[in-house]
Amino acid sequence: QGSNLFVLFAVTRPPDFTLAKMEGEGVSDAERTQGLMQLQAFMQGQKVTMKILGQCFTRCVTYPKNHLSHSEQQCVWNCTQRMFDSESFLLQRLTEAQKQKQRM
User: Fold this and answer.
1) CA distances (Å), 35 to each of 14, 20, 28, 48, 92, in order?
2) 54-101, pLDDT tens digit by residue?
3) Rounded CA separation 60/30 (Å)
4) How many whole angstroms separate alpha carbon 96 and alpha carbon 48?
5) Cβ count near 60 (within 10 Å)
């Protein structure tokens, strides 16, 4: 569980819209804009993930060694799970509040 922590949180697949596609012929401005927005959203997600992981690492690991102890791995894992759950909860609440505001 903890040994795969960096793989689970730091390595995700970027949107399937490459720079070569954006520069190629036959790509409309709308498609290019959509691709750039997807890439920007992906990069923002990566920034949040790395920020959370960094905060948890700092909180859980007092002195980095060649490897993390089991308790350090568990601490980082639990911390990141709680932070991602909190982030998801807050995003859901914000989305619901915006929908209610639009209905009024």
Assistant:
1) 11, 11, 11, 20, 25
2) 999 999 998 889 999 999 999 999 999 999 899 889 989 999 999 888
3) 45
4) 21
5) 19
Contact by Cβ (8 Å): 57, 83? no
The SS3 assignment for 63 reads coil
Token pair for residue 33?
A: 């804009």
Mind listing the pLDDT tens digit for each residue in 47-62?
988 998 899 999 999 8
Three-class DSSP category at 26: coil
Structure tokens at 42: 């992906």
DSSP 8-state secondary structure symbol assigned to residue 4: G
CA pair distance 26, 29, nearest whole angstrom:
10
Please say whether the beta carbons of 17 and 39 come within 8 A.
Answer: yes
